[in-house]
Amino acid sequence: MGKASSSKKIKRVQQAGVSRAPGQRRNLGFPALVVGIIVLGLAMVFYARSQIVEKVGEAPVVDQDKWYSAYGLDICGVYQDNPVAIGPDETGITPTTDGLIQIAPFVESAAGKNAQFGLFADQIGLKLSNGELTLADGKTYKNGDNCKTEDGKEAEGEVVMYVWPPQATDATKPETVTT
């Protein structure tokens, strides 16, 4: 039995790995499809992002948009019961029983930039001025009023309104609106 030369073995191995005839072009369909999907995906991402950026500047629409904001009333370290509306809803900014403000304006004077906390305060009979808070039942609290702390000591009270941004966490620092 004769031995084949090394060069013949190498030539046979090289020929076994070739699946096309000499001069035949490589099929580019699959790589072209992958590139097309990537380009189309990027185009869709940029288009969607531009649509979101355009909507960010839009004001909420009367009788169409509705959202909620949380609130709480803490007097001398004691959270108060959630206040209820004292009259008919004239703006669409009303309290719920679970500590939320439902903001669903149905008049232009309460929509967009006009949807302010003062409309909610009017709805629950809350009066706020610099350093003073008056509840619907007539009780008034002022800066400097004495409060009992958790350990029973007297401390000077302060009327402050804090605002947290949407999606706030426990670590988020609030913005102080009034002092």
Question: How would you characterize the overall build of this protein?
Answer:
Strands 1-5-4 form a three-stranded antiparallel β-sheet, covered by helices on one side. Strands 6-7-8 form a three-stranded antiparallel β-sheet. It is an alpha+beta fold and 179 residues long. The protein has two domains: 24-58; 67-178, no CATH class. It contains three helices and twelve strands. The model has no long low-confidence stretch (mean pLDDT 82).
Radius of gyration: 34 Å
Strand order of the largest sheet: 1-5-4
- Main sheet overview: 3 strands, antiparallel
Low-confidence stretches: none
Average pLDDT rating: 82
Fraction in beta strands:
15-25%
* Computed structural class: alpha+beta
SS field, number of helical segments: 3
Helix content: 25-40%
Number of strands: 12
* Apparent shape: elongated
Quick rundown:
Helices cover 26% and strands 21% of the residues. The protein is of the alpha+beta class.
For the structure shown, list the relevant keywords.
179 residues; alpha+beta; 2 domains; 3 helices; 26% helix; 21% strand; elongated
List the helices and strands and how they pair.
Blueprint: H1 6-16, H2 29-56, E1 67-70, E2 74-75, E3 78-79, E4 93-95, E5 100-103, H3 117-124, E6 127-129, E7 132-134, E8 140-142, E9 146-148, E10 154-156, E11 161-163, E12 175-178
Antiparallel strand pairs: 1-5, 2-3, 4-5, 6-7, 7-8, 9-10, 11-12
